[in-house]
Amino acid sequence: MKLGAIAAKVCENLGSRALGLEREWLSPSGWPFLFCRHEGPYMNAQLPSRVRLGNFRSALVIEKEDALRSSIVRFLKHQGWLVHGLRRAEQAFPIFAHVLYDLVLIDVELPGITGLDFVRILHNSREWRTIPLVVISASECPTIVTEILNSGAFLARKSVWKDDLSTYFLSLH
Known about the structure:
Rossmann fold; 8 strands; 2 domains; about 25% strand; five-stranded parallel sheet
């Protein structure tokens, strides 16, 4: 399904006649959100709508290190994923209100909400608990590794993240 068709379906589901569809980049990090212009009391208002991005596989990468985050994003894009990257876990929650991701990769050692806290929040949420999670960690600490694995997340080691992600993708087929 093409992006325009998805936007038309979103507008249809909102119950208003769409006057125009457009794709806008709303944030400095380049997050795509679809908007519909509507008739009625909010004429020309742009109302955000939550969408699943059709046949595209979408992933969110939350990693504090810019170089690693960029490398992971490039790797996933090369694999055919639609990918977004963030530095902090807190930035993900407003975006989850609009975009349904097929995969979230998160660094275990983040400032603010840590990767493990983020995993707990998602697993305790009715709405987000089904999102597959990959936790990226440089830690060899058995307690952290055990906690990641017990949470149901897949562990990708920072030193060999590309190999671990390749293994994870093979396990999905």
